[in-house]
Design a protein that fits this description.
4 copies of one chain form a homotetramer.
Chain A lengths: L2 E10 L4 H11 L3 E10 L4 E10 L3 H11 L5 E5 L4 E7 L4 H11 L5 E8 L5 H6 L4 E3 L7 H14 L4 E4 L8 H6 L4 E5 L11 H8 L3 E8 L9 E8 L6 H24 L3 E4 L2 E4 L1
Protein name (chains A, B, C, D): Formyltetrahydrofolate deformylase
EC number (chains A, B, C, D): 3.5.1.10
Pfam family, one (chains A, B, C, D): ACT
Chain lengths: 278, 278, 278, 278
């Protein structure tokens, strides 16, 4: 029976890479549904995402690819199985709510294994959708201790991605390194403007005419990780900081959901501190 | 010496087309700078645009492609030479002005061979930039007669594209058929809303909250040709039809300039009544 | 104790109207928090929305206004009480889900009295939020009979507005006249493009580069009622009609929620076939 | 004969200000065409912009206003006369070109008194439009000396506003203080992201997905002055820093032209470090 899989290849650029890879696909009688490639001319690195349909003999397919491609090539083949996520939250419902709702009506191809809050506020919302909610309070814990409890609970579910849906605490480096390019955060500003706390207050004080939201992978510099998606809305002098915060909710939730969808669809390559989205 | 050329291929879809074409490029030692392909699953048609760098032996390259590709394949190889355009105008300066200005500062890779107006209004603007202006009035002429005079003048310059920069007359079918997929028009609405005359008045009367502009190739149904690009701006109850018209100028000029740039960069395939932009 | 209310005035334009109204507010020691006015110079009609704070003696306030304003003036004073809505749905969850979720986290100042579906599909979603769901099937009923059942159920809840959150049936004129300027619909296209059924299919066939959604009040011409809000997203040749439909969900739900918020905030005047949003 | 003028009032907020001002307008038989007001609740400051039509007795009108308004009120009455600007440039033509072209076809209500460049590059473009161009080179001059030469030349023309249309030098504090809230700059980023030099290079290195432009008044902190207008465009991983720079031109020129139009239309109040646009 025909299966669909996505082949993700990246390696130092060389002549003939597209021909090499597509030849092997053709040899294996795999039909190319979509193909996107990109060469970063600065770093001379090659990226290709190939949607394939056919009968996969993964072992020989990989052998053929390994033989033909440069030694340093990264090659992955991913199927259509649902990916699993764990969501971290604090008190705000809008980003979580959008993911729960989209998952409910089938707009996200994902299994939400669990939601973990450092407050109990969102339990009842999560449980409406039959998803387990765990409250792991940070009270009387050091940051490292709290993060270890989070990690222990997260690892029970072996998620593909961890989604910070307005989780309002900074995660310590050890936690971040445990899940490289697997923690997706929504920052409620148009990064790199207004890094850190209270970005809407900062935006208000600066008198900007546009505010935004940024979904990015977490790395160990605050709000400096690879950006996946950004979007903005217009504001004007009539917006207080609080009005900006309210108006920003829709753009925050939409940007996070779309960034998550890109990750779930295996469309994101992370290279150095940037994303290539194919 | 290394040259850069764009290979444009389209044909009925078949297995292995990307491999076939990229193999031939590789055999000819042509480096692929960018490659974009698209398969329209409804019509089962394949499109590919490949930016190549190398030393081109066009004859053997085409022979190899012809042998390997399906019989019905369209294959074109275009160089980086400036394309030539003739611009048709009536009285409004904004779209013409943007093209003249962008060409002046090098943002459009084009030779403006001539501007033809059915009024003399824009002569002085055109001549500032050292470009010949011809007034071909429609007075006392039938539409067919007038269009024949236009075509005769246009053909003196053998342009690649004819740009209707707010040329406010409908061209007759004979004229249109003379230049298939080579006449680019800007329509001052978000097509297919407000086809025909006075779209801003129509938009005002309908009370829309967004207005737009549409760049499209001309075919023989009024405002029905393949759409290249569209963009919109927000309006509200404070806009009169005239205020909409004024506000629409910036979006009209930007959409037309960008559509023209796509055409000049050989990024547009026209297939049936749609554009595929790679 | 200080109350906040919104004064909504519209009447044929005359000199001194702003002074007249604001004088009366001042005389009643009502503080003006925000004031917006608009004169439609075509129809010579005046609109003003005034947010007031103070202690309201409504009877004398209205007497003063009636005496001072033209005889034909419409004057309303509305408080901050939650408005009540009934939502009509068919099978699609995204618009309903957004309203339910926003109401859950307090982003909409509304009481959702009931949801009525012509299918039972969305019962479980609605009941999660503790809101009554009624299935009123249209099977074996004429349109008029079905609409009468709907109206009877709706009237039990005496809603301020009826929200068609992807209710996929046309309502008959009698129903529409029963609730003038009180039925808010989301149409899944950028009206007036693609009126009627299957707009995404129409958009796909036309090859547009932008799709949109339109929230409007229902009147008795299909998709011709006063437009409240519109928004758009970019698409390209890679979008099938179904992909457009999926991509359109986020813009549909956002446009409907925002239009509803405008109605709930008493910011919309309907005049002839247009909205004035102050 | 009826004249049109704009009344601009700002003062500490107090009860009855709208009534007070509109009463005086009414008493003077001045018809209010448009009125916009705003109260900043944080600073308790009141702003109102009133478009008036009638026969103006400015002396008694101002006397009446002075008597009725708080002592600290700022009151200005501006007519429809064209304002005068001087434009400063370096080598890039796109922002200058858009202003020249819009002025040519009547889309900006302005007299361009002169263009001054610190290079001679743009002379021929400016002179095409019959506008005087002055090259004031900064070679062998200190910043202060150069700015003094600029100011001396500018002052010959007594401009209402000075427009920095990609003038790529920082102006010294003395120069800036000479023209408070009268120098409009276009910064080629979405401020406060990427302050300072080479913002597109910074944006490229950070891997942002949106770039923008910001028009603002100059004050004495680099890129910190009151923001008038911002706009953005989407970019992705395929954009080099240079491609971003090219793509940014259209948004830069549009934002600057629109900000200038707001200034020319007397729609901007500057208060503390923000703009209120009515």
């Amino acid at each position: 029976m025909l299966e669909r899989k996505v082949l993700l290849t990246d390696c130092p650029d060389a002549k003939g890479l597209i021909a090499t890879i597509t030849n092997i696909c053709y040899k294996h009688q795999l039909n190319i549904l979509h193909n996107n490639e990109f060469v970063d001319f600065e770093t001379k690195h090659f990226f290709m995402r190939t949607e394939l349909e056919g009968i996969f003999n993964e072992q020989t397919f990989f052998e053929d690819l390994r033989l033909a491609l440069p030694e340093k090539a990264n090659v992955r083949l991913v199927g259509e199985e649902k990916k699993r996520i764990v969501i971290l939250v604090t008190k705000e419902a809008h980003c979580l709510g959008d993911i729960l709702m989209k998952n409910y009506y089938g707009a996200l191809n994902v299994e939400i294994a669990a939601v973990i809050g450092n407050h109990d506020t969102l339990r009842s919302l999560v449980e409406k959708f039959g998803i387990p909610f765990f409250c792991i309070s940070h009270h009387n814990l050091t940051r490292v201790e709290h993060d270890q409890l989070l990690a222990a609970k997260i690892d029970e579910f072996a998620p593909d991605y961890i989604v910070l849906a307005k989780y309002m605490r900074v995660l310590n480096p050890e936690f971040v390194q445990r899940y490289p390019n697997r923690v997706i955060n929504i920052h409620h500003s148009f990064l790199p403007a207004f890094i850190g706390a209270r970005p809407y207050q900062q935006a208000y004080e600066r008198g900007v005419k546009i505010i935004g939201a940024t979904a990015h992978f977490i790395n160990n510099e605050l709000d400096q990780g690879p950006i996946i998606m950004q979007n903005v809305i217009n504001v004007d002098h009539t917006y207080s900081a609080e009005a900006m915060m309210k108006a920003g909710r829709d753009v925050e939730k939409t940007v996070l959901s779309k960034a998550l969808d890109l990750a779930l669809s295996d469309k994101i390559f992370v290279f150095q501190n940037k994303t290539i989205i194919l």
